[in-house]
Amino acid sequence: MKIIKFLNYAIFPFLGVIGFVGVVNAMPAPYAMCAYQGEVTWSFGGSSFSCNALLSAKVNCSGDMEIVAAGFVVGNAPCPFLFFGNFPWASNVAAIIAGGATINTDANGYGITSVNDAAGSPFAGGLLNGVGGSTSSAVACDTGSTVNVPDSIPISGIFSYTGATLGATGLANLGCTPVF
Question: Which end of the chain, N or C, is less surrounded by CB atoms within 10 Å?
Fold first, then answer.
């Protein structure tokens, strides 16, 4: 009986919130789901550190990109103390390929940071400038349609909310899978 009460009061409402947020902000199919990975360097408050980052992004046939997950390769200290949220983050693949793009890590407009430390303190958020300048490859985004996606995502930018900087010579495209 205690387990059922726990599920009713703790888990199910939590799942409901996640489902609501996901439905409101989800990019509808069809799209290409792409994975990117590479070494990034963070700088904030006088300290700097590097680690291996992972991103998952949806790209529709119009070239809209939603980053739907971000994290670090397990075992790469000191980055595991950072937590990512406030998804999806938004950008445009044509702008990333051309260079000088931004990634909006507060695309929902809540005014909150998207990267926090283990204590919940704001680390980075808002618009990340200095994104892109890449070659591209065509991938399926719909039955019979393709979209060009960046082969890598170089970054040399500053987050608008906190002034944290992020640098990456290029998050390499590990591959894309069409979702219909």
Answer: N
Q: What is the pLDDT of residue 45?
A: 87
DSSP code string of 99-125: S-EEEETTTT-----SEEETT--EEE-
| Token reading at 72 | 């670090």
- Sorted by where each begins, the domain ranges of the chain are 30-179
- Give the H or E element holding residue 167: strand 165-179
Please report which residue ranges of the chain form alpha helices under DSSP H.
2-6, 12-25, 93-98
- pLDDT at position 78, please? 67
* Element (DSSP H or E) covering residue 54: strand 47-59
Task: For 69-90, write each residue's pLDDT tens digit.
Answer: 999 988 776 677 889 999 999 9
What is the Cα–Cα distance from 116 to 121, expressed in whole angstroms? Answer: 5
